[in-house]
Amino acid sequence: MPGHGDSGYAVDHYQLDLTYQPRSNLLDGVAEVRLHTLTETSALRFDLHELRVTKVSVTGATLGKYTRKPTRLTVALKKPAPAGSELVVRIEYGGNPRPVRSATLGEAGWEELTDGVIVASQPHGSPSWFPCNDQARDKARYDVNLTVPADYTVAFSGETREVRRRGSRRTWTFQQRHPMAPYLASVQIGKYREQSLDGPGAAIRILRPEGLPADAFAASFGRQREMLTCFEDAFGPYPFDSYTCVITDDPLEIPLESQALSTFGRNHCSADWDAVRLIAHELSHQWFGNAVTASSWRDIWLHEGFACFSEWVWSEHSGGPGIAEHAARQHERLSTLPQDLRLSDPGAADMFDDRVYKRGALTLAALRDLIGAEDFGRLLHRWVAQHRGGVVCTEDFISLAQEISGRSLRDFFDTWLHQVTLPAWR
Fold first, then answer.
1. Which residues pair with 77 in a beta bridge?
2. What is the mean pLDDT of residues 233-250?
3. How large is the average pLDDT for residues 80-105?
4. Is the separation of the CB atoms in 302 and 379 below 8 Å?
5. Which residues are within 8 A (CB) of 368 and not within 5 positions of it... i.e. 6 or more apart?
6. Among residues 71, 233, 363, 409, which one has the fewest Cβ atoms lying within 10 Å of its Cβ?
């Protein structure tokens, strides 16, 4: 994001020790950021939105001073650290977290619910709750301790390692051992009951409020085990250790996906296709967006186009309309909309425009038609296996598609990705 991140270093690990009071929306935290410098640097810049900083220390270099602006913390070193230096920066901070506002992208980050918290950081909200190098390309591993009142349950984008009760509080300990971009780190806090979906493969954990209609739950969230198996067949093994699905008691306009964790409103508990497709959509992001992450937001179609295409994969698998039928319907609809969006770089104002989602999915459906289902399946499996845990760009996908298909696809991708006019469907 413009104005976010520091290209002079890369983070290896975040250790976050947090305490949160829901009634007052008060967060106190200590962040230990282990990093290595990529260039010689005399200052380290962290993104942190309006939370007060009370103390900073540095191991591996000598701290000069630190300065605070509303959205940035700058840690100056007395002597420049050479490229390759390994440092640990410890930051004590706290305050009342609130979403980060962008003129073009709206609000993202830490947000209070009626009784709890939802953290939706894509694409610029991570600094609302912890100091970070807020760049999608800077993936790191995480260990998190979060203490809350004992009647609240916590979910994080990683594995629950331990829950300890001390008096009226519980401390939840989490770990994400797979590399994770800052915007994909999320916390959800609320009064939930836990349910597991039985079956082979990765554990699926659901945190849900009371009173969800049983039939609607079974037809939507209850089918996530089948969805996961379907997507493993189509894309390769599930890329993380487990999957957590949070259903808030509040209605949500759109669901939210983060690494190994997705969040929905109780309004998404429905057998209607518009609810079911979103559950499939968010699950598929674990492959496309979270395990394999676009290095730049201009390539957002590598997330959203793939996730929309995954909805069609699930529809076909589960006995609904097939991929070709969905593609034909969406092509007809898109042909009536303005032809002014370039899929390969839609711009900040349009990066979450529905045309990015649907035209991205159409691009994949057209590619499948062109190179055949067998090569297309090999392409998606290789795409995930080759880039899992890393970052990618559109050119990477084009190169792999050409390698696997054994043909030049430049004209095809130019038409679908770089030209604003919607190509013909079949």
1. 63
2. 98
3. 96
4. no
5. 323, 376
6. 233
Region 297-323: mean pLDDT is 98
Mean pLDDT of 208-234: 97
Q: What average pLDDT does the segment 12-21 reach?
A: 99
Domains 193-283 and 294-418 share a fold: yes
16 contacts: CB under 8 Å, gap ≥ 6: 29, 30, 31, 130, 142, 143, 144, 145, 146
- Quick check: 1 pLDDT over 70? no
Q: Please give the Cα distance from 143 to 135 (Å, whole number).
A: 19
> Position 201: which residue type?
G
- Note whether 171 and 210 are within 8 A (CB): no
Residue corresponding to tokens 């790191």? 140
Give me the CATH code for the 193-283 domain, please.
1.10.390.10
Cα three-residue angle 362-368-370, rounded to 5 degrees = 105
| Assigned CATH topology for domain 294-418 | Neutral Protease; domain 2 (1.10.390)
- CA distances from residue 331 to 221, 277, 335 in whole angstroms, order as listed: 29, 18, 6
Q: Provide CATH code, domain 9-180.
A: 2.60.40.1730
Which phi and psi angles does 177 have, rounded to 5°? -90, -10
pLDDT in tens, 263-304: 999 999 999 999 999 999 999 999 999 999 999 999 999 999
Beta-carbon neighbour count of residue 319 at 10 Å?
A: 7
Find, among 67, 217, 246, 80, the residue nearest to 153 by Cα. Answer: 246
Indicate the pairing of strand 187-190 with strand 153-156: antiparallel
Residue 2 scores a pLDDT above 80: no
Whether residue 104 has pLDDT greater than 80: yes
Check pLDDT > 70 for residue 18: yes
Question: Domain locations in the chain?
Answer: 9-180, 193-283, 294-418
